[in-house]
Design goal:
Length: 588
């Protein structure tokens, strides 16, 4: 009897072990079936800079992703970086998660107000925290800009492994920051604050090295992953490795006017824009390129050459990441997203550092970075390409970073699905937003949004899932009644269907509400506020709702106070006779 009992016991043990092994195998199989996510963000890249969106810059790897995925042409972000990143992480409006204003420019009436802490709120979970709690590896490399103390760095917000520049910008080669206060710049790897950077550091390459290293460290364990690669490129100061310095010599000698028109022509052929699209007006304080003397043309074109080289190098590194995924059989079950965090920057700090508000700042800039034509693009130069070329990057739109015109908030978006659904298509109908990404990834992964966090009830994400649109079952995640509001530094806009209202303060705008039919007039050339007062009133009512729902506190001070006289006032926007309805007149 004893032997029989022992035999039965061992049989039972073996059965339990077999069941456990079977369950482990099923769990690993389920883990393998859950998709991976690669989210790549460029910093200050314009809508039409990459080849797949009409640009002349060499971006073969991004263009390849565009051919394998879908290009979405109505994707919106915030006017600057950290508000966009806060919405990416949480699926919520930036005013609700600590980034109602960037900490660098908080207005007095916003101080100590909820939603205006200048760091990402710890009361709302990030998508990384949710994915990690549901069995995902979570990796992050690149620019963070959502908080610097130990409670706000990536490692504290759900990222299992991270290598991050915590500040908004800085040198691509060293720990020099954007100002004296942020030098040495703030970097972390996981929970460790760094005192020196890896040997041979160049931001774009090192961020790619690290994300590959993190993915590779766990590639065989059967668990899915989120890899968030937040490039610093092409944010100023523009710096490239030596072998890229002259790659674009002569490429931009035609000037911004000719090149903008060429980009528009290519975008129309690609189906990104309607053939009736009218180019957004040239910035009123920028001369025609043909008005410059030949020597001035050569000198100013050099700035765009450097910008293009920074974008080109970033594209090459994105290609290296894609090659790694291919060679390790990780592409077949991976969703890939690429976009830019906001429009291009018009501020030419390198040319204006002597006008900094204090002598100390000017002296620091002069001694920390090198300046002058002969140094542009080199390590520790402070190169910016300014408003002239920024308007090329935004073509065909008007506006730029900091503003809520299309040039500041409409971003190029590529989404690649594992099955290649609708590969190569251009979607011009879907109205999409950066706060949609978190709920979309959770939806794809089959993970329910949590109702509580840290023992407290939390609101549902405001973003809309793209799953139906990505699968080709719907043209847009939004209905005609849904709207998207945006505010930063008292620049305001609201998009609803084909219509948009926008109010940008001086010196970059008029300070008045304008109304545009952006489906037919993406360049925001023709203000329809006077001819369509009922539509203006409708969207203004929606704007009031947006402000209440999202705790929008309009600032009593902006970074542009006192600058009204620095630029000539923007002339009135031309309002044509729209007797044919809202259709934009044919180009002459």
């Amino acid at each position: 009897m004893k032997m029989e009992t022992i035999t039965r016991f061992y049989c039972l043990v073996l059965s339990v072990l077999a069941l456990a092994q079977s369950q482990t195998a099923v769990a690993q199989q389920a883990g393998n079936q859950r998709p991976n996510f690669v989210v790549i963000v460029a910093d200050d890249m314009g809508f039409s800079d990459m080849g797949a969106f009409g640009g002349e810059i060499n971006t073969p790897n991004l263009d390849k992703l565009a051919g394998e995925g879908v290009r979405y042409t109505n994707f919106y972000v915030a006017p600057t970086c950290s508000p966009t990143r806060s919405m990416l992480m949480t699926g919520m409006d930036n005013h609700l998660v600590g980034m109602g204003c960037m900490y660098e420019y908080l207005a007095p009436n916003q101080e100590n107000q909820p939603g205006y802490e200048g760091v990402l709120s710890t009361e709302i979970p990030t998508m990384a925290e949710i994915l990690q709690a549901n069995g995902y590896h979570t990796y992050m490399t690149g620019k963070w800009h959502l908080g610097k103390n130990k409670d706000h760095i990536p490692a504290a917000r759900g990222f299992e492994r991270s290598f991050s520049m915590l500040s908004g910008s800085g040198s691509y080669f060293s720990m020099n920051g954007p100002d004296e206060e942020s030098t040495p710049n703030h970097y972390v790897e996981d929970h460790q604050y760094l005192k020196e950077l890896p040997k041979g550091y160049y931001a774009t390459k090192t961020f790619t090295d690290k994300i590959i290293e993190y993915i590779d460290s766990n590639k065989g364990d059967g668990k899915p992953f989120l890899a968030y690669l937040a490039h610093q490129a092409p944010h100023d100061p523009l710096m490239v490795p030596k072998d890229y310095l002259r790659k674009y010599k002569g490429m931009f000698d035609k000037g911004w006017d000719v090149l903008r028109d060429e980009r528009l022509e290519r975008m129309v052929k690609m189906g990104i824009l309607s053939e009736k699209t009218v180019m957004g007006e040239r910035l009123w304080y920028v001369p025609g390129f043909d008005k410059l003397k030949p020597a001035a043309q050569v000198v100013t074109a050099r700035k765009m050459e450097v910008f293009a080289a920074v974008v080109d190098y970033m594209d090459m590194q994105i290609g290296r990441l894609m090659d790694y995924l291919e060679k390790n059989n990780l592409r077949e079950n991976t969703y890939i997203l690429f976009f830019s965090d906001n429009g291009p920057d018009v501020n030419d700090k390198a040319s204006t550092y002597k006008n900094y508000p204090s002598t100390n700042n000017a002296n620091w800039m002069a001694k920390t970075y090198t300046h002058g034509f002969q140094n542009w693009g080199r390590a520790e130069s402070f190169t910016c390409y300014g408003p002239s070329w920024a308007q090329l990057s935004t073509a065909p739109f008007f506006g730029f970073k900091y503003t809520t015109y299309e040039g500041g908030t409409r971003s190029p978006l590529i989404v690649v699905s594992p099955k290649g659904t609708n590969a190569g298509q251009v979607n011009t109908e879907a109205l999409m937003h950066v706060k949609d990404i978190a709920p979309t990834l959770l939806d794809i992964a089959g993970i329910a949004q949590p109702g509580t966090f840290k023992g407290k009830s939390i609101p549902a994400m405001q973003g809309k899932s793209w799953v139906s649109t990505i699968n080709g079952n719907s043209t847009s995640p939004r209905t005609a009644d849904d709207y998207l509001g945006t505010e930063l530094w008292n620049s305001k806009s609201l998009r609803k269907g084909d219509w948009k209202i926008v109010n940008v303060m001086l010196p970059h705008g008029t300070g008045d509400w304008q109304l545009y039919d952006v489906k037919n007039d993406p360049g925001e050339r023709f203000d329809l506020a006077a001819s369509h007062p009922e539509k203006l009133a409708e969207l203004l009512a929606n704007w009031d709702q947006y402000m209440v729902e999202n705790n929008v506190i309009l600032p009593n001070r902006t970074p542009y106070d006192g600058m009204e006289d620095k630029l000539p006032p923007r002339p009135p926007v031309y309002a044509p006779d729209f007797s044919r309805g809202s259709e934009v007149p044919e180009k002459e």
